[in-house]
Structure prediction request, 114 residues.
Amino acid sequence: MAPESFTEKLVGVGEQRLRAMDDAGITMQVLSVTAPGTQQVPVEHAAELCRAINDRCAEDGAAHPLRFNALATLPTQDPEAAIVEANGAITKPWRRAPRTAAPRPRPYPATRPR
Prediction:
């Protein structure tokens, strides 16, 4: 498989993805950036990259709201920008849950499974 074809299958959420989902019996997919995510990006570029990723996910979700949802990507190396992006994820018309790439569960009791 050519690299372009492989990349398109990973990032493309158009008709080809929808057909593959239908063929596999998948009704909904959650879009997200995989590890290491944006944590490897220099702090001066992280917020801009996260915003672009989240905007793209919002566009894809708005185009197919019954088929796609997403986890927002946050620039965790820039806490103030992460707050701005998390707020945007919650308040934009096509909502997506904020996500961080934490290496282990957080110790906060309210977020731990019971």
In short: The CA atoms of residues 2 and 49 lie 26 Å apart. The longest helix spans residues 43-63. The radius of gyration is 15 Å.
